[in-house]
Write a structure and sequence with these properties.
The chain has helices at about 5-15, 20-35, 55, 90-100, 155-165, 170-185, 190-200, 205-210, 215-235, 255-280, 285-295, 310-315, 315-320, 330-335, 400-405, and strands spanning about 45-50, 70-75, 110, 115-120, 125-130, 140, 145-150, 240-245, 245-250, 340-350, 360, 370, 375-380, 390-395, 410-415, 420-425, 430-440, 440-450. With about 450 residues, it is of the alpha+beta class. Strands 1, 2, 3, 4, 5, 6 and 7 form a seven-stranded mixed beta sheet that branches. Helix 6 (about 170-185) packs across helix 9 (about 215-235) and helix 10 (about 255-280) packs antiparallel against helix 11. The two termini are about 45 Å apart.
Length: about 450
């Protein structure tokens, strides 16, 4: 049995990194970024900061008790052609900026490809030096070998987003579930980037067409694990795994032949157990099977916590109590009926003087963007039949916006373009909501979170 709501509860209560820690992570990265920007060792050379890894891919999970979780971000430095013969000089400048800082210096450790800032018994943040050369080549710095290494972090995030879209938004949830099995149940061992790449590579459009294999989380889980098992069994030795966004780079150094063989054997044992739990004929038998896989964290019953996507966006009493001075709520203006689909996308443009990477999707940056960037929100798809009206709401949060009297929250009517342009001015966790109103009812809504660092 699928037990879709059971999986929703498992993800919410045991797998996903809780919102408080994600918010704290955003704040910590913002503070580190400000420290870097203010350092005389970098002299205004910072062009951008870009989340990468599980944080950007939205596959980060809650760690086991007493184990740190980690997040990576790249700090893009302006190219210094005089230093290109000595790539280590870029990384050394970042190290000098962090190690000399009164707060972060004692927390910092120098690694081959990053500077690690550790928060005791909680998490560590890896700061990776990143440069876009005049040729367009994107590189990080390997301090140990004193070499540039090719990379494409935003491209990787875009790739995992595309694969997730093919699975109706279920791929990243399944990757989190697999990471939970790895970290909490010790079902197997493999580096996260390898797991994400290998499982993502199994998702192709031809596998989706005319099938329902990715229609929900448990279906996606059982089908991807079985596809993974078949693929692994067809490999007689450790395969080469290329970075999907930068094929010249491989992740082959991330595992050994014995590690591959152990992973292959573990997945071969896991796949039939997952199929058995999925195929059970009663709820009781299925719960027993899934608990044998995921342990006691898999719920034996579900609470009444599930809600429609529209209901999840409606404000709670706490939100209303902490409303901005001029904030408005759509349900006070129109009756709300969760009837239609609405999709919105956001593109990010850097300031003109830093326009080296061009326009990118906000999701490709993990929803995070520095100050002084331009955002263009646009309705990309809706099932609401024309004619209809579009409305927008921009809600800022945080001390900077509050001090400037710019918490906002008003609901305004679209001018007819079905898009809206904003600038990133204040650090904090903000959001933009879009509503479609037809025949006096709000029939669709969606939200795009924006974290400004």
């Amino acid at each position: 049995m699928k037990l879709i709501k059971y999986f929703d509860q498992l993800l919410t209560e045991s797998v996903n990194l809780n919102k408080t820690r994600l918010t704290q992570l955003d704040s910590r990265v913002g503070s580190i970024t400000e420290a870097l920007k203010g350092s005389p060792h970098l002299g205004g050379r910072i062009l951008d900061t870009v989340p990468q890894g599980s944080w950007a891919h939205k596959t980060i999970i809650r760690p086991p008790e007493d184990i740190e979780f980690d997040a990576d971000f790249l700090v893009q430095l302006a190219e210094d052609t005089d230093g290109n013969d000595n790539p280590r000089s870029y990384a050394d400048a970042v190290w000098s900026a962090i190690s000399s800082h009164s707060t972060y210096g004692p927390m910092a450790t120098k690694k081959d490809r990053c500077v690690r800032v550790s928060y005791a018994n909680d998490c560590h943040i890896d700061i990776v030096t990143y440069v876009v050369l005049a040729s367009g080549r994107q590189v990080i710095v390997n301090r140990n070998s004193n070499e540039f290494e090719d990379t494409n972090p935003v491209g990787f995030t875009e790739w995992i987003q595309e694969k997730d879209d093919l699975t109706n938004g279920n791929l990243r949830k399944v990757i989190r579930l697999l990471k939970y099995l790895r970290d909490h149940q010790e079902a197997f061992s493999i580096k996260s980037v390898l797991l994400t790449t290998i499982v993502g590579n199994l998702v192709d459009a031809w596998r989706v067409n005319g099938t329902d294999k990715y229609e929900d989380v448990p279906s996606t889980l059982v089908n991807l694990v079985e596809d993974l098992d078949r693929w692994l069994q067809s490999q007689w030795s450790k395969p080469s795994i290329a970075d999907p966004a930068c094929p010249a780079t491989t992740f082959d150094h991330r595992w050994t032949e014995p590690q591959f063989e152990a992973f292959r054997a573990r997945i071969h044992r896991l796949a039939p157990r997952i199929r058995e739990a999925y195929g059970a004929s009663t709820v009781s038998e299925s719960v027993t099977g899934w608990r044998a896989v995921f342990g006691q964290a898999f719920p034996d019953s579900v609470s009444a916590l599930t809600a429609s996507s529209t209901a999840a966006l409606l404000p709670t009493n706490e939100v209303r109590m902490n409303r901005a001075p001029n904030e408005q709520f759509i349900e006070d203006m129109f009756p709300v009926s969760d009837s239609y689909r609405l999709s919105m996308a956001c593109e990010v443009s850097p300031p003109r003087e830093l326009n080296r990477a061009g326009r990118r999707a906000l999701k490709a940056r993990g929803g995070r963007v520095p100050k002084q960037y331009s955002l263009r929100f646009k309705v990309t798809d809706t099932s609401v039949p024309a004619p209809f009206q579009v409305f927008w709401k921009v809600r800022n949060h945080g001390g900077e916006a509050m001090a400037r009297g710019s918490l906002r929250g008003e609901i305004t009517k679209d001018t007819g373009q079905h898009e809206r342009t904003e600038s990133t001015l204040y650090a904090g966790n903000h959001y933009v909501e879009c509503y479609i109103v037809k025949d006096g009812f709000c029939v669709a809504m969606t939200r795009e979170p924006v974290v400004i660092t």
